[in-house]
Amino acid sequence: MAANQLAQTVRQQLGIGRVLPLGGPADGAWITEQAATEVLRTAVGSRTGVRVGTLRLSVAEPDDAPEPAVPAPPSALPPGPLRIEADFAAVADRPLPAIADGLRAALLTASDRELGLVVSTVDLRVSGLLEADEAGEAAVSPPTPATPTADRTPTVAPDGRTGSTQASPEGAAAAALAVPGVARLAPALGGLSRPVRLAEGHALIQLATTAGHRTLDVTGAVRAAVTAALPAPLTVAVLVTAVERG
Predict the structure, then answer these.
(1) Which residue of 22, 28, 73, 205 shows the fewest CB atoms closer than 10 Å?
(2) pLDDT over 70 for what percent of the chain?
(3) Are 243 and 35 a contacting pair, CB within 8 Å?
(4) How many CB atoms lie within 10 A of CB 85?
(5) What is the CA radius of gyration of the chain?
């Protein structure tokens, strides 16, 4: 049974991809690669004559990345500027460098405007040419979104601080859910099956946000709301596991 549980955890972790920094070192926010790439694919999916294939994100200079201001989620990457790597196929009705420049600009705009990612580099590779009659097909083929497994009911873990009765996970959950742009509590990390974790003066909140709200702004509001709802001293980190469309 332990082996099966480990295998399930590994499959889940591979499914969400890397745990990426959202914003800078002072923002205390992270987002799963799966959630980020789905937003970026949607943002560039309407570009005529372009089909995005592989799309990956990573920290551009991990050895030079600063330490986060709050404890990071397990396996999270440090809060340095990101690199986007993607390949694409396009109809050669314009020079390919011009098509790549337009796609690069769209990815950079969406990264900041929709999510709040700090991106320093976008590396693009042409993977093929499309025929004119293929231009009307879907520009992207994003992975099928996971079926939501949690609603807005505060399902939380017990307080991890020995003898503490002051800090309430239920209070943290309620404060997070009251923030505009929060869709639901949504755990994704293997080994952390509940969306709110309090331990040793630190709170980790795993949640899904709603498209149309800049993700970094939502996480900042959640951190402020949870900090105000629970007694000090407390640090708060937020992990966005999905960005949901209505």
Answers:
(1) 73
(2) 79
(3) yes
(4) 14
(5) 19
Mean pLDDT score, 226-235: 90
Q: Are 9 and 68 in contact (CB under 8 A)?
A: no
Element (H, E) at 204: strand 202-210
How many other C-beta atoms can be found within 10 angstroms of the C-beta atom of residue 194? 16
105, pLDDT greater than 60: yes
Task: Tell me the C-alpha distance between 106 and 32, whole Å.
Answer: 20
- In this model, does residue 13 exceed pLDDT 60? no
CB hemisphere CA count around 36 (13 angstroms)? 34
Helix (H) or strand (E) holding 129: strand 119-130
Looking at the structure, do residues 50 and 126 belong to the same domain, yes or no? yes
Task: Return the H-helix or E-strand segment holding 120.
Answer: strand 119-130
Longest CA span, the chain = 68
Number of domains within the chain: 2
Q: Give the range of the structural domain holding residue 187, as residue numbers without chain letter.
A: 169-244
Question: What whole-number distance in Å separates Cα of residue 149 and Cα of residue 168?
Answer: 23
Closest CA to 16 of 184, 189, 147: 189
Could you tell me if residue 162 is inside a domain?
A: no
Is there a domain that residue 74 lies in?
yes
**Bridge partner list, 85:** 56, 123
CATH number (domain holding residue 236): 3.30.70.1350
Phi and psi at residue 184, to the nearest 5°: -175, 165
- pTM score, whole prediction: 0.84
**Domain final residue, candidates 115, 134, 153:** 134
Which residue type, as a one-letter code, is found at position 211? A
